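Task: sequence design from structure.
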């Protein structure tokens, strides 16, 4: 979308973006979102994050999703304990 807005090919835009910022457009946006999430946590009274539990079913796909979820939240300071239902 950014490349189209600038009337550039996506490859050229990505190359120029990375050359000027040091990261790809996707990584740049990801980092912005992480920082915004940390700001919102701080505004909500959790500047150091918090801990919680996440219950998942015993199926492998649900466990994988739970681990992905926990990893993503861990990047903003939320410690997620995965609990398996049997």
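Answer:
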């Amino acid at each position: 979308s950014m490349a189209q807005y600038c009337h550039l090919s996506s490859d050229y835009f990505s190359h120029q973006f990375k050359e000027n910022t040091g990261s790809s457009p996707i990584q740049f946006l990801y980092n912005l979102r992480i920082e915004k999430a940390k700001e919102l946590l701080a505004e909500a009274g959790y500047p150091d994050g918090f801990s919680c539990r996440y219950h998942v079913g015993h199926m492998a796909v649900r466990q994988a999703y739970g681990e992905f979820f926990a990893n993503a939240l861990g990047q903003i300071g939320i410690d997620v304990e995965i609990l398996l239902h049997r």
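Residues 33 and 39 are 10 Å apart (CA to CA).
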